[in-house]
Amino acid sequence: MRPTVPFWSWAAKRSKDAFRKQSKIDNYRSRAAYKLLELNQKHRFLKKGYGVIDLGFAPGSWSQVALKAVGTEGFVTAVDIQNVSPPQGVFPVYGDMLDPQTQTKILEAFRQHRQEPIKRELVVDTVLSDMLHSTTGIRIRDHAISMDLCNSAFQLAKTFLRPGGFFVCKYYMGSEEREFQKSLMEVFKRVYIEKPKASIKESREAYFVCLGRK
Ligand SMILES: C[S@@+](CC[C@H](N)C(=O)[O-])C[C@H]1O[C@@H](n2cnc3c(N)ncnc32)[C@H](O)[C@@H]1O
User: Fold this and answer.
1) Which CATH number applies to 29-213?
2) CB 120 within 8 A of CB 96
3) Which residues contact 195 (CB under 8 A, 6 or more apart)?
4) Which residue numbers delimit the Ribosomal RNA methyltransferase FtsJ domain (predicted)?
């Protein structure tokens, strides 16, 4: 019988395959869904009616989780460099987040998709980034590319987030993370580093969870 505690609190003790199997049962596009579910259960950055930008959405399990959490009154705009169909109800923007033009594309997408006054279009509640490049195995290089992705997500968060808003950002551990964390702390009231249970222990990924944009 399924225990009543959250799935990820017992699955991690079994095997990483437990998350993959469960994602098939729960109809998530990948096991990454459980990372977001766990982070959100702890920090509550996805709520009914929220507007969310999901960076690096493909294949789409974070968008699925976000869409369910925000409901029909909220919206999810999802960005990826890959041309993957998003989950139904999620509005896609295709582009490279390292290209400054992509931010303009996102703004355009808001204009087309949301028929509201321009003032509202610039304000979202939560920016998620699960972006990661194909890692090379060379730690310094993988860390440097990841920090570039984090910085592009942070720039976007500063442009689009309302005061009090939230920013969740995956990074590949390395020497520049402290400096990046300091920049986050200038913009957000609280900044946490998290390693959710569905994240493979040996992997060097972790997440900044930033609460309360100043
Ligand atoms: C780990 S996957 C994200 C998984 C996703 N959160 C989910 O739940 O299905 C990382 C994604 O980041 C995207 N990505 C990597 N570099 C990018 C870039 N420069 N611009 C936009 N997306 C990028 C990749 O294409 C990939 O789809």
Assistant:
1) 3.40.50.150
2) no
3) 205, 206, 207
4) 28-213
Kindly give the distance from the C-alpha atom of residue 2 to the centroid of ligand 1, in angstroms, as a whole number. Answer: 32
Sequence-distant (≥ 6) Cβ neighbours of residue 112 within 8 angstroms: none
**Two tokens at 114?**
């949301």
Predicted structure pTM score: 0.92
Residue of 80, 93, 103, 105 best suited for mutating to test ligand 1, as the one with most atoms within 8 Å of CB: 80
The structure tokens listed for 100 are 């400054």
The answer for residues whose C-beta is within 8 angstroms of residue 184's C-beta and 6 or more apart is: 154, 167, 191, 208, 210
170 among known catalytic residues: yes
Distance CA 134, CA 136 (A): 7
pLDDT in tens, 129-147: 999 998 888 999 999 999 9
Residue type, 116: E
Does ipTM top 0.90?
A: yes
Span from the CA of 56 to the centroid of ligand 1 (angstroms): 3
Q: Cis peptide before 100, with omega less than 30 degrees from 0?
A: no
Helices (H), 26-138: 33-43, 61-70, 101-113, 118-121
For residue 42, CA distances in Å to 16, 37, 149, 194 come to: 21, 9, 25, 10
CB atoms within 10 A of CB 151: 16
Q: Determine the 3-state secondary structure of 211 from DSSP.
A: strand
- Neighbouring residues of 89: CB distance < 8 A, sequence distance ≥ 6: 67, 76
